Amino acid sequence: MTYSGPPLREQRLVFGEVADVYDRRRPSYPAEILDAVLDFAGLEDKSPVPVAEVGAGTGKASVLFAARGLPLICLEPSAAMAAVARRNLEPFPDAEVQETSFEDWRPAANSFGLVYAAQSWHWVSAEARYPQTERALKPQGTLAVFWNVMVRSGSEGLQRDLVSAYGDLVSASWGSDQEERVEVNNWVVGEMEASGQFEPGSPTIVHAPWQRSYDTDSWLELLSTQSDHRMLDDETRGALFKRVRSAVDANGGHVQVDYVTVCYLARTLARSQ
Fold it and tell me: Whole-angstrom Cα distance, residue 76 to residue 64?
């Protein structure tokens, strides 16, 4: 039977539906993470060593690396997100956005000193993550993957109200403890170890805590950029957001978020090219 319903949506590409909102509301990354990545990779500002970004989105991390004068290739499969990234990277002539996925990219072999993924590594197919990394990186090149993780979103009262508002609609883990949230991407550790591509002891893990406050409207805009919320149908998402608005407004009209940016750093083994 031939499918004749609405176009099927791929979850990793739904961010493009709200590219401008994503660019406005998604946070950037702490300077100490950028410093840790470049220090680990042995790269200085204006280093000529090429850098590749996996899943650039609208360029939140891209502009940080580009501002250091690094030659940068940014891979982004969503046309809408890539368009915003190009706009944000206009001041940086050494930064190029390529509208492609990491899986489909065909880099010159062993030519990059750093491959990094900000908020995107989990969207790359497990089969492609490390073969593509090995293909792209020079011997003793660096893979850096990092995420902004919400470890606390608002007061205890707001937490309770959000649990009630969501029910079992999406995978938001309002009830999990902070340690579980910080470690949510520790699956990377096992993958890196199992790949056999990296120096013993990999990965090095760096944590950078920080905070941000959102009013009700900006919080709802932020939620509207999250893929699990985007995958809800319009009616369900609208009803959910009404309940979330009520919960936030009833708890002071703002959400104080404690973030931790967690970065996993690994250096490939020395090998002949």
Answer: 16
Q: What is the largest CA-CA distance in the chain?
A: 62
pLDDT digits 0-9 by tens, 53-92: 999 999 999 999 999 999 999 999 999 999 999 999 999 9
* C-alpha span between 55 and 125 (Å, rounded): 12
d(CA 261, CA 232): 27
Instruction: Count H helices and E strands in the chain, helices first.
Output: 11, 7
- The owner of tokens 């502009």 is 63
The SS3 of residue 77 is: coil
* pLDDT, tens digit, 9 for 90 and up, residues 171-184: 655 556 788 889 99
E-strand stretches of 137-253:
137-153, 204-215
CA 44 to chain centre: 23
Beta-carbon neighbour count of residue 10 at 10 Å? 11
**Closest listed residue to residue 219, CA positions, set 150, 145, 121, 136:** 150
**Whether 197 contacts 269, CB under 8 Å:** yes
Give dist(CA 105, CA 100) in Å, integer: 6
Instruction: Report the alpha-carbon distance of residue 185 to residue 121 in Å, rounded.
Output: 10
Structure tokens at 118: 């900000």
- Taking the C-alpha atoms of residue 164 and residue 166, their distance in angstroms, rounded to an integer, is 6
What is the three-class DSSP state of 71? coil
Domains of the chain, CATH where assigned: 11-152+174-210+259-267 (3.40.50.150)
Where do the H-state alpha helices sit in 167-213?
178-182, 187-195
Task: Quote the CA–CA distance of 161 and 151 in Å, as a whole number.
Answer: 17
Give the strand order in the sheet containing 72-75: 95-98, 72-75, 51-54, 112-118, 137-153, 254-267, 204-215
